[in-house]
Amino acid sequence: MERIADVVIIGGGVIGLSIAYHLGQRKAGKIVLLEKGQLGEGSTSRCVGGIRTQFSTEINILFSLESLKTFDRFEEEFGVDPEFRRIGYLFLATTTSEVEIFKENIELQKRFHIPVQYLDSDEIGKQWPYLKADDILGGTFCSQDGYAGPSEVLSGFARGAKRVGVKIYEGAEAREILVAQGRVMAVRTSDGEISSPVVVNAGGPYASSVGEMADMKIPVKPLRRQVFVTAPFHLTERDIPLTIDFHRGWYFRREVDGFLLSGPLDKEAGLNTSIDYEAMVEASENATYRVPAFENARIARGWAGLYEISPDNHAILGKVPGLEGFILANGFSGHGFQHSPAVGKVISEVIVDGKATTIDISSLSIQRFEKGELIREPVTAFKE
Ligand SMILES: Cc1cc2nc3c(=O)[nH]c(=O)nc-3n(C[C@H](O)[C@H](O)[C@H](O)COP(=O)(O)OP(=O)(O)OC[C@H]3O[C@@H](n4cnc5c(N)ncnc54)[C@H](O)[C@@H]3O)c2cc1C
What we know:
Distance between the termini: 37 Å
CATH class of the largest domain: Alpha Beta
Strand order of the largest sheet: 5-6-4-14-15-16-13-17
Oligomer: single chain
Number of domains: 2
Bound molecules: flavin-adenine dinucleotide
CATH topology of the largest domain: FAD/NAD(P)-binding domain
CATH architecture of the largest domain: 3-Layer(bba) Sandwich
């Protein structure tokens, strides 16, 4: 392993690899990426790949629009088909306050020319007749949303990063970050020490442990989400959007010949990634409530993964006051996959140019928590 680097990235998920690729492209010197296990083994491999522009804050919309540019030309740039399927996202509202919020969101989204439509209950019932629609008051649909393959995107970034000269080490755990006179100096790993003036925390759900290595408190908590997949099941010949029953916090989409059904999100933080029977029952109940035909579907498998939740469900990005050279790319709160292209780009700008220029990320600084300037959303953000 290298003993000297210009940048060390801790974490080999989609975020760390996107940053590595963008830094390599910018010729930012010797870039080393450390992954304690295998690339993608954290949240990235558990992700369901959702990509959308239907967000309720400007900053998330900006990250989506910038990232879409990359997803659209991914194969050209990385030589890997990301399997991006633009099936659309359909958000369903079942309360009057949700209808109001959705309408406010549309106003914001239209300011960014996002082709989102508001649909009333009759239109939803007509377009997607397999949905139980009698309690649906309305919904929003955007055809440019969809999903891509997390492992395809991860391997595209990994391939791109290697091509531009990044050194990637798997089975290499960062154990200590050495600091002197208010700046990072080196990373002590399971395989020796690497001195570097810049260290990036891309630890996903482990962001706070990586922060502790530099004596920094990063307010990111791991939170389990369970997901289930049915055996092959025929619902309709029509296109099926990724459909979100907002009130129930439940969503589904096609997955090969069956369907992917979201399970519950834990209430307490923790690192447990097993699945449980109660969660499967909850997922089935939500599924048969909204799509009665699912009564005849059988759950074949499931998995669980960890979101990396920040106090306001928005990313924590950029420099850290008082600790020069320590860069954060954390707290994506369930949206890190879809925002990874733009995150890689802006973090490379922070490191190379001293400041992000593609998107103003000042509102995502870690200082916002200290200053009480948390980002506010009309309701708690939806998480895929
Ligand atoms: C069930 C589920 C569904 C999701 N669906 C979506 C979705 O539809 N759309 C979306 O945008 N997002 C989704 N997400 C969120 C998305 O998966 C994450 O935001 C994203 O993968 C975060 O990437 P990351 O690289 O920051 O983290 P990870 O992929 O977790 O990568 C961090 C890596 O750091 C490594 N690491 C940690 N500590 C150390 C150390 N000390 N030394 C070396 N390596 C270390 C870990 O092993 C890990 O591989 C979902 C998440 C879950 C759990």
